[in-house]
Amino acid sequence: YPTWKRTLTRRARESQMKRFCKAQAIQRRLEEIEVTFRELEQQGIKLENLLRDEDDSPGDRKTQWMNQLLYLVQKKNSLMSEESDLMIMVQELKLEEQQWQLDQKLRCYMNKEESLKTPEERAAEQKTLAQLLEVVNQRNILIHIQEEKRLSEL
């Protein structure tokens, strides 16, 4: 078993583990965001009720509650933006994994001598190549979406 094959196998396992760890971290953060959403929702409901029920409260207190409510809305919007970014990252990880699998499959076809390939294998190789190109295009679209979002936030 040549050294270069062992190196490629090790690197493939390492990159797969990195994707797995990244996916776990994203999942944990999405769960944290969901919990924070619920907490913000509860705080918002309390503030809305205070604003509706307290007609005889001083104007300063109402202003303070209104500012708190606006702060909660702002925080919720920033969390929604972060959640959107994380969902794009999840999609990117899926496409990266899919690209890796298709690349491995294509390598198997390409390693075989051209004269020994059956017509079915040639067709499968072309199909795999087309799928790989589609995945690369999808990843490119995600990168453009992220870039547009970043530029719009600036």
Can you give a write-up of this model?
The structure is a single chain. With 154 residues, the protein is mainly alpha-helical. It has one domain. Helix content is 90%, strand content 0%. Helix 1 packs antiparallel against helix 2 and helix 2 runs antiparallel to helix 3. 2% of the residues are buried. This is MICA1 monooxygenase.
Provide the fold topology.
Blueprint: H1 3-53, H2 59-111, H3 119-153
Helix pairs in contact: 1-2, 2-3
The proportion of residues forming helix, as a percent range, comes to: over 70%
Number of domains: 1
Largest sheet: none
Ends: how far apart? Answer: 52 Å
Order of helices and strands: HHH
Mean pLDDT metric: 91
Features:
elongated, 3 helices, 154 residues, mainly alpha, 0% strand
Task: Give a quick summary of the entry.
The chain is mainly alpha-helical and 154 residues long. It has helices at residues 3-53, 59-111, 119-153. α1 (3-53) packs antiparallel against α2 and α2 runs antiparallel to α3.
